[in-house]
Write a structure and sequence with these properties.
The structure holds 2 protein chains of 2 kinds.
Chain A: E1 13-18, E2 27-34, E3 44-51, H1 59-70, E4 89-92, E5 95-98, E6 111-114, E7 121-123, E8 126-127, H2 130-138, H3 159-163, H4 182-187, H5 193-204, H6 212-219, H7 233-237, H8 244-257
Parallel strand pairs in A: 1-3, 2-6
Antiparallel strand pairs in A: 2-3, 4-5, 4-6, 7-8
Helix pairs in contact in A: 5-6, 5-8
Chain B: H1 18-48, H2 51-62, H3 64-91, H4 98-123
Helix pairs in contact in B: 1-2, 1-3, 3-4
Classes of the chains: A alpha/beta, B mainly alpha.
């Protein structure tokens, strides 16, 4: 049975309030989830008053401003800052997304920033994604061909077959979709989740791959696949505008018709 | 160490979308309908046993609470039927587009109330 409430050690407490020191007129309250493994205390939500007149347009800019000017201990992952690497995936205003491409002007009122939902927190906004990576490994996300040794030749793909991968190969594995899925929250250890299933479909659908049947057989499992109830939180949250729900639906359809 | 790390908040902070709202409603309504069908079967069987058995049911259903219950069940069945059509379309591979899914969701929600009213009017021999 799924546990809907947070365990005792995860209950969120009221944190510190960082008052503005720049005397700016254009202030915004930013609530950020904080947890420091070295203190042994429960997580808390700190509130920062941020001067918006001197701040970049994206949510990541706010986080950098806080880290540079207010509290250097704030911890978060980021790398490219252009929506390509998927490192800065977090829960912004109740929806998962990439902080680097989410404009803070799109959000009204106070800004709430949490780590990706239902993950073990490593520190502050960093969640532990190792289960997801293991599941990703389990679908064997590489090209499998029967060719051996010297007879290896170039694998050609027609334009039409290549187009079948559009909307799937763009996935950057930021885990926004998987961690937005209630089914994945309750059965994350067994259910593969939207991100991994979208990847599974990407390999099933690749005309160059020689292992389609095996791949389908592997994924056809009551828990691995059919925990998807088309809640569509995944598609709603994907920062790249992809459609994991459709990918999962396509796998189900393939299984039903093959 | 790993197990002592806190769990990040999920249900507590995640924003509801129409799709997730309809999904959980579908499930709750499904459970309600399951029990409702059992009660409806008992009600139908009670007809066979004559007036003495049937009368208590009739009395309950004629109270305000009984009427509320019947209309509520009309809604739960309407909602389930319409949302199930949506699921059938999904199973056939249609309607996954985010915009379309939102539109069909709203149609389902509004349609379920319209269908409830129709059920009620048909039951009252309005037509």
């Amino acid at each position: 049975m799924a546990q809907f409430s947070l365990p005792q050690n995860s209950k969120i407490e009221v944190g510190n309030y960082f008052k503005d020191k720049t005397n700016s007129k254009n202030l915004r309250k930013i609530n950020v989830y904080r947890w420091d493994p070295s203190t042994g205390k429960n997580p808390r939500v700190d509130t920062f008053e941020v001067d918006m007149d001197n701040c970049g347009p994206k949510v990541l800019d706010i986080l950098f401003k806080i880290k540079n000017e207010i509290d250097p201990s704030l911890t978060f992952r980021r790398s490219c800052a252009h929506g390509v690497c998927g490192s800065c995936a977090m829960n912004i205003d109740g929806v998962n997304g990439l902080a680097c491409i989410k404009s803070h002007s799109d959000i009204n009122g106070d800004l709430n920033i949490y780590p990706l939902p239902h993950l073990k927190v490593v520190k502050d906004l960093i969640g532990d994604l190792s289960t997801l990576y293991k599941q990703y490994e389990s679908i064997q996300p590489w090209l499998k061909v029967d060719q051996t040794g010297q007879e290896k030749t170039e694998l050609k793909q027609s334009q039409r077959d290549r187009e079948k991968l559009d909307g799937y190969y763009e996935c950057i594995l930021c885990a926004c979709c998987s961690t937005s899925c209630p089914s994945y929250w309750w059965n994350g250890d067994k259910y593969l989740g939207p991100a991994v299933l979208l990847q599974a479909y990407r390999w099933i659908n690749d005309s160059r791959d020689g292992d389609k049947k095996e791949r389908l057989k592997k994924v056809a499992d009551e828990l691995k696949l059919y925990r998807c109830h088309t809640i569509m939180n995944c598609t709603n949250s994907c920062p790249k505008g992809l459609n994991p729900a459709k990918a999962i639906g396509s796998i189900k359809k393939m299984l039903a018709t093959s | 160490m790993q197990n002592n790390n806190p769990l990040s908040p999920h249900l507590q902070i995640y924003k509801w979308h129409i799709s997730s709202l309809l999904s959980i409603t579908h499930r709750v309504v499904g459970v309600i309908n399951y029990f409702a069908l059992i009660v409806i079967c008992i009600w139908a069987i009670s007809l066979f046993f004559g007036e003495n058995f049937y009368q208590p049911f009739e009395n309950i259903l004629n109270t305000f609470f009984g009427k509320f219950l019947i209309i509520s069940l009309c809604w739960t069945f309407s909602f389930q039927i319409l949302n199930e059509i949506r699921h059938l379309a999904w199973d056939a591979g249609f309607g996954f587009d985010l915009k379309i899914a939102k539109i069909t969701g709203v149609i389902t929600l509004i349609g379920s109330f319209i269908l409830t009213i129709l059920f009620y009017l048909v039951g009252r021999n309005f037509f």
